[in-house]
Write a structure and sequence with these properties.
The protein is about 20% helix and about 35% strand. By secondary structure, the protein is α+β, with helices and mostly antiparallel strands.
Length: about 260
């Protein structure tokens, strides 16, 4: 809400509704739009372009705009679900550093969930059983690759080959041995991309490659195109990334003299 109010106060910003951006022309500094309401194509010139299409939309737009990118990688903190008994009820989330990996876990009381959906207030389960949402650090997770196949743009999940059933069982044991707040009973692997913690396709830093952003999110190899979403993060935390992403966007906006 703060960001929305800040932008609305700027007199040099105009909001256009029902427009779908299809392509960027980097050489001539214009974007091609499709007007969803009037069913027609439009062209809008720009001096500076700030992309905030999301961790999937931004790579897709860039790939559709130029053949410079042969393949764009979308990283994530992979999602797992599980069952656990919680020994100490004063905590509902845990961030744990293990050997060569990090995990973040969120607990949801199974009794509460059943009563919530049934509209009841019963103690249906005597055991303190919880549904667990688990997120594995980016380095150990799978990833998504976006590439061009003739005229089509394709998203393909690339499974980390180390994420075998044996790996998941050993992960459960490592978690249990690292603390005494809860006991994991079972961990189930979810599909690639199901975490919604996705980004780092154009990480910000001093390293200049076509797959990077530099000062204040400026896309490398451009003079006036900026990325303002999780695509420019240089890492993805195992915890929900919305707050970190928004704070980074606010920082870039407040420090950018062109806004």
């Amino acid at each position: 809400k703060f960001l929305e109010n800040y932008l609305y106060q700027k007199k040099n910003i105009q909001f256009l509704n029902n427009k779908f951006i299809e392509k960027i022309n980097f050489e001539k500094n214009y974007i091609e739009l499709y007007d969803l309401k009037n069913n027609k194509n439009e062209i809008i010139e720009y001096q500076n372009l700030f992309l905030s299409c999301g961790s999937i939309g931004t790579p897709l737009l860039l790939m559709n705009s130029t053949e410079l990118y042969k393949k764009i990688t979308l990283y994530e903190t992979q999602h797992f679900s599980g069952l656990a008994t919680l020994k100490k009820k004063n905590h509902k989330s845990f961030k744990i550093n293990l050997r060569n990996k990090k995990v973040y876990l969120q607990f949801y009381d199974l009794n509460f969930l059943i009563n919530y959906f049934l509209g009841t207030n019963l103690n249906l389960l005597k055991s303190n059983l919880n549904i667990v949402q688990l997120y594995l650090d980016k380095t150990n997770s799978s990833k998504i690759e976006l590439y061009r196949d003739n005229d089509d743009l394709v998203f393909e999940g690339k499974q980390n080959p180390n994420l075998t059933d044996e790996y998941i069982d050993s992960l459960k044991d490592e978690i249990n041995n690292s603390q005494d707040n809860f006991q994991m009973k079972k961990i189930f692997k979810s599909g690639i991309g199901s975490s919604n913690h996705i980004g780092c396709s154009f990480p910000m830093g001093k390293k200049k490659s076509i797959y990077s952003t530099i000062e204040l999110g400026k896309l490398a190899n451009t003079n006036n195109v900026y990325i303002y979403d999780s695509s420019c993060l240089n890492d993805i935390d195992t915890q929900p990334i919305s707050s970190i992403n928004m704070l980074n966007i606010i920082r870039m906006i407040m420090e950018n003299e062109k806004l």
